[in-house]
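ok so I'm stuck.
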Amino acid sequence: MNRLAQTALLFLLGATLLHAGTTDLYLRYVKEGLRPLVLLAGAVLIVTAAATLWYDRRGTSTHEGGTSTHEGGASTHNGGTSTHDHHREPRVSWLLTLPVLALILVAPPALGSYSAAHTGTALTKPFGFPALPAGDDPLRLAVADYAGRAIYDDGRALRDRELRITGFVTLDREGAPYLVRMGLNCCAADAQPVKIALTGNVPPVLRPDTWLEITGTYTPRRTKDPVNDGPIPYLEVTTARPVPTPHDPYDETWNT
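replied:
not stuck anymore, here's the structure
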């Protein structure tokens, strides 16, 4: 790989990061709050590529100007081969093309039911529970917010209120349905699920990865995650309707 190829790869990778950061593509890889860093990384790579090209062209011009004064104006060294052409990086440098191709050609979907079914619930006890807004029902909650209040606050603020929660469906080995959102600490590589078991007026046929908006009520019933024995609360379902995949499929409520 010569210097020109390195510059082209740096520029392409930077442009790809800028594209990801200015669209929703970056949400497939990192949490929403890291968008400025994605854009900054893309800008830095493009500036680095431009600086590399400028220094390379400047060095070439200086080299050619210096050699023209030697041996009657000859412009080459060592039998006509420019020493500049020998500055090539190891072939392993071509591995830099892999992240570029991955970002351009293979945009993975958000993690879904398969990951949730094979990973134990990551619900942890929060430091506290802020007051819920008063007003007309239904009250919209995140999956992690409902699960945390149901398990660690015994549903005190949830009783006698109609709730609305959105998540995707996953099924355990016995076919029991759960409403799930995946939470991120940093990026998709560390995503973990928070789960709510469904009871009541559950649709008779549920397909994994289907996004549902559930309207229901709190119930003190609980179960344990078959993967890690973590606590999972139930939700008494009143109605359920399919909805499109949200703008940001990950839920950061549980780790904020």
